[in-house]
Amino acid sequence: MSANRPAAVVVLAAGEGTRMKSATPKVLHDICGRSLVAHVVVAAQELDPEHLVVVVGHARERVCEHLGGLDPDIRAAVQHEQNGTGHAVRMGLEALSADGVTLDGTVIVTCGDTPLLTGSTLRTLADTHTAEGNAVTVLTAEVPDSTGYGRIVRGADGSVTEIVEHKDATEAQRAVREINSGVFAFDAALLSDALGKVRTDNTQGEEYLTDVLGILREAGHRVGAAVAADHREILGINNRVQLAEARRLLNERLLEGMMLSGVTIIDPATTWVDATVTAEPDSLVHPGSQLLGATHLSAHAEVGPNSRLADTEVGEGAVVSNTVADGARIGAGACVGPYAYLRPGTDLGPKSKAGTYVEMKNAQIGEGTKVPHLSYVGDATIGEYTNIGASSVFVNYDGETKHHTTIGSHCKTGSDNMFVAPVTIGDGAYTAAGSVITKDVPPGSLAVARGQQRNIEGWVARKRPGSAAAQAAQAAGRREDSGK
Ligand code: UD1
Ligand code: CA
Question: What does pTM read for this prediction?
Answer without folding.
Answer: 0.93
